[in-house]
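User: Show me sequence and structure for the first protein, then do the same for the second.

Assistant: Starting with the first protein.
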Amino acid sequence: MLASLRSAAVFGVEAYPVHIEVDVSFGLPHFTMVGLPDATVRESRDRVRSAIRNSGFEFPPHRITVNLAPADVRKAGSSFDLPIALGLLATSGALTRRAVDDTVVLGELSLDGGINGIRGVLPIAVAARRLGLRRLLLPPQNAAEASVVDGIDVCVARSLPEALQALNHPETAERAPAPSTPARTPVASDGDLADIRGQLLPRRALEVAAAGGHNLLLSGPPGAAKTMLARRLGGILPPLTFDEALECTAIHSVAGTLPAGAGLLSARPFRAPHHTISNVALVGGGGIPRPGEISLAHNGVLFLDEMPEFDRRVLEVLRQPLEEGRVTVARAARTAVFPARFVLVAAMNPCPCGFRGDERRRCQCTPVQVAKYRGRLSGPLRDRIDLIVDVPAVPVSAITDGAAGEATAVVRERVSVARQLQQARYRALSARTNAELRGAPVARFCAPDATGRALLRSAIERLGLSARGYDRVLKVARTIADLAGSEAVLTEHIAEALQYRLLE
């Protein structure tokens, strides 16, 4: 007796179909699973056996063979529990259909027959629509994210008997409610930008970084509000577009960080890993590749507080993602590509003790110690940071009597207008922001006027800018022009962009 059902698995952030074939034949009781299952999949034998018995069905006391096709791709995860159990029930006659080709079945079984949520449902729903399949049967915890995909009939089952009923009588299956459009909100921030007194230049740099998607490094003594500034960057970013929300939701679904019952993410991600993080946890990887922190920050913010305290090897793996906007994780069998376009904001002290340049506190560090501390950030990594800003200690008078600065909502409105200009300008390109421009479009869209070119030529000689640094100055100047509502990149825009490279 043979039964066949459709399921799916995820590698990277892409899904691929998996056929579950269940054969029950006469012989000594034995449960064999083939098709390169990992430990989690092999353990499903015990979960399936208990779930079938505790749901009131008879587990076949015969020789059972389960094949997960394609057989040359390793399978991982607990999402195959439900289709395996339904395949066994099909061979015993409880499921009237021996071959279920129109429905993708997903779900992890509890020992009592209940169905638990799984990872990666959104990429699976997208792949199912691409393959022409119109129906999903899955746990209710994952219904909201699957319903985001148009043209898919999403059915839910809370237990094994409900799943059996849904396949025997599809017309009576419970459908997932229509997805509600989430409110488009920015990144949840720790407070309002108006809370920060003084620090006019760092506030301006924060606005420029948000408007153009540029990377930002804040350097200053302890207590100068570097962390406060960084954590308010999310609040001035524009809301997610639908396409951006779809990308972010798919990544978090695969990583298992999507809250149960959640649909599309409505806020831009903000990730702030601790400096003890490993390079695999930062960029992603593992035997079965999973997204790392930089992919979880896709379309949002990655904040590295006390950047020099991170391991040098961890920081160096950022170089390629910062340039390409993606991470490629190669394994012997397959290669996974994770998107990683984010705004990097980092904070550091000017020296080990932190008080170098502080007028109120004396620095105790020797020049050798300072050079060694700053040398933890390599030249190639610094070259990929568009804005490097000094954050001086805030005077007491500014804290006690200083006027509040602009509120987050006011700055976010200017940033949103600048982003809209960029999206309209680059409609025919793959770039969404000025920071994503590469090659010829930089010269086309960011070319300064004659005076600006002369200023830039002089700065290259004095500052020793690399070719990458030259391009990044042009792109920052383009963003400053967008904030000013200027079609052309003028000399004052070049001058402001250059001042963000002086600290380097």
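Switching to the second protein now.
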Amino acid sequence: MNHPATLLRIDFRPLFTLSVAVLGLVAILPAAPAYAFEGRAFGDVTVEPGEVEGEVFTVFGDVTVDGPVSGDVRSAFGDVYVNEPVEGSVNTGFGDITVRAPVAGEVDAGFGDVDVYSHVDGNVDVEHGDVYLGRDAHVAGDLEFGNGEFEGNENAVAGDIDTGNMDFDGPSGRDILGFVGWIFTSALFVACSVLAAVLAPRPLSAAARRAEEAPGRALLFGLASVPAVVVLSVVFVVSVVGAPLLLLLAPAYLALVFFGALVAAFFVGSRVVMATGRYRSGNALAAVVGALILAALPLIPWVGKLLLYALALLGTGGAILALLSRRRPLTTHPSYEAYVRDRAGG
């Protein structure tokens, strides 16, 4: 089977997901039932031969499936070894996946390699890692992987093979839908950035200033927020009164990261606008320019998504620093003319 790479494939999902860590860690926590967390938040999990599990999940640790599983198999930080049939999907945020027995659902890895030696009924999706298909492998769905390498039996894939930003199968309806989806998502992101610049200029400007004043510290705070949310989620899970708070934590953190992306767009746009000497055009223009730049990042092969995630976490860190700052809030509407005068020392 020959799959010529002929058409640009646009992936617009990072504009909404923003962080693989958020998707791999926060989004899957509320989905797992309570019993799956008991005694499995930390450490390795093994389904022994002869046992039948409904669902297997761990936050920090590896998962070894030596007995059949009727549900999903998930690990946030750890490898997954499938040696017996799994009727659900197999997912890991940061870890490798080895499939040596049939999987009825999908196989999804955020940061890690995937080796398949058996039958997978769903798709195989690898964001950042290599893919290997053995001689006996068969993927009934599509194979998608980002900045990694593909080795093995290409004919084992019944669906499409997508790598990076290129579609192996050439022109298709999905490519058109992807392009339309990118346009729609970019327009929505630009609209949110403008609304934030117009309706909430003070917190947006304060967070952007913190990100500019201490970019290293802001990025560190943004990166540290991911494991902090994981630890809080585990604490809420093991506590009796924490389960309702867990349902609020995930959307609250996703909202914070999305606001961080808006801060990043405002920050990047402000630098571009000021470099061109058009700062008098106001906050809205800076928000539009920055949002368009961030929206275009997923179009860059290999590093585009990582840049988007890094900028979003930079803005998230800037927002956290602004919240922790003891400085008095601005008493007037911030403008770029005042911003430039402030930076120039009056």
